[in-house]
Amino acid sequence: MIRELRTAIVTCAIALGGHTQLLLAQDAEESHADEHHFDNAVALFVGASTHLRTEHGNETGLTIGLEYARRVSSWLKVGLLGEVILSEQERNFILLLPFFAHVTPHLLLVAGPGLEHVERETEAGGDREDPKADFLGRIGVIYEVEVNNWAIGPQINADVSGGHWTLVYGVTFGIGF
Known about the structure:
Blueprint: H1 2-29, E1 40-52, E2 59-71, E3 76-86, E4 90-96, E5 99-102, E6 107-120, E7 132-143, E8 145-147, E9 150-161, E10 164-176
Antiparallel strand pairs: 1-2, 1-10, 2-3, 3-4, 3-5, 4-6, 5-6, 6-7, 7-9, 8-9, 9-10
């Protein structure tokens, strides 16, 4: 599990690091803040998560999330994100500290560490196993379109937690302030 988390974090660092020099150069050229960008944003995520499990098959569930993001430069935002995944066999609660890097004005790379709390039904059904918490790593991409202070963006993310991968996909609706 630690190996998968370390691999996800290194992959995120490489993906974000490759663009750092270019983005820092853009920051130097843009000495004044871009007026149409907001320093803070809150957003609602609605989508689905598919747990990619080989021993029990794949399982998909409704995913609802809430996030807050703070712009720290013209190309980087840092946030706090909470999600709940509701599937037939599991209830997952995720708390994540995502970093959002603007590769272009609309394309964002997402990476961050977090925790996942899992409640799972037993094989016999009805009863629940003891809940467990695992570290989680996330990488993803968002295509964000802004209109005034509103934003909408389809996104896809890959999470690794407890040695298992989950695809998270859907749409984020946000407002900047």
